[in-house]
Amino acid sequence: MLGVLINLLYPALCRVCSKRINDFNRNICGDCAKKIKERLPPFCAKCGRQLKGEPELMDTCPDCKKDMPYFDRAWSAYHYDDPLKSLIHDFKYKKITSLSTDFTDLIINFMKKYNIGRDCQLILSIPMHPDRLFKREINHSDILARNLGKRMGIPYSGNTLKKTKNTLLQSKLKRGARIKNLHLSFSLKDSSGVRNKNILLVDDIFTTGSTVNECSRLLKNSGARRVEIITLARGDNA
Q1: What is the spatial distance between Cα 157 and Cα 218, in angstroms, rounded to a whole number?
Q2: Alpha-carbon distance 202 to 232, whole Å?
Q3: d(CA 68, CA 60)
Q4: Maximum pairwise Cα distance, the chain
Q5: What string of H, E and C letters represents the secondary structure of 47-68?
């Protein structure tokens, strides 16, 4: 009843088309949600890159064959195109944190479709250096991972991984420089918390995978049994 009353007084509007939404805790109407393009197989069997061919194709992309990542499998749910691209920008830089509810729904739907995280025992997020968190005020990865943990009934830890080096922004660097930029920039609070665990690592966007791979390297070297990656979006349109 409270939700109905709130929606009557302050009607929710779609952040894409401005149409009224009956559900007060949503930001995207049904029509605009359908415009968010889901990534479809075949995917690289390691990094999740979009491949060309039949959906049943199981192959590893050239980059992973050349330099195998530390994580066991990475998945990205949707293409990094509008309207999702604009919504992620609002979430990260305009601090529209209520979008996390819509984003969590999108990720959960994708994960159910491909049986992702079935054996997951712990959910972690990509940490942010304290100086950058002070400027940004929110860690978008933390918010998404926390919501996923609640929805899936899986423990979430927001302080297992720490960002110890305030690195340059990855978006300003090329692939090789990104890897060097992140080397030894993360630490682990307590390795006993990840030992022999199947871990789901959460972030918003998969670009080159350098960040999640460096975190995976640390987790695997600390005894994690399996590390899977799930991100909301990825910018490959093959």
Answers
A1: 16
A2: 9
A3: 10
A4: 58
A5: CCCECCCCCCCCECCHHHHHCC
Cα separations in angstroms, 151 against 105, 108, 148 = 9, 8, 5
**Omega prior to 69 cis, within 30 of 0:** no
| pTM for the predicted model, two decimal places | 0.89
In our burial notation (b when 16+ CB lie closer than 10 A, e otherwise), range 188-200 reads beeeebbeebbbb
How many CA atoms within 13 Å lie on the side-chain side of 11? 9
Whether the CB-CB separation of 163 and 186 falls below 8 Å is answered with yes
Query: Taking CA 82 as the corner, what is the angle to CA 79 and CA 86, rounded to the nearest 5 degrees?
Result: 110
Delineate the domains of the chain, giving CATH numbers in brackets.
1-35 (no CATH), 38-234 (3.40.50.2020)
Look up residue 183 and give its two tokens. Answer: 């080397």
User: The tokens of 49 are what?
Assistant: 């890159």
Averaged in consecutive runs of 10 residues, what is the pLDDT profile of the chain (238 residues)? 51 89 85 95 95 92 94 97 96 93 96 94 95 90 97 95 78 60 81 95 93 95 97 84
* Spatial distance between the Cα atoms of 210 and 233, rounded to a whole number of angstroms: 15
Residues forming a β-bridge with 226: 198
Supply the DSSP symbol for 69. Answer: -
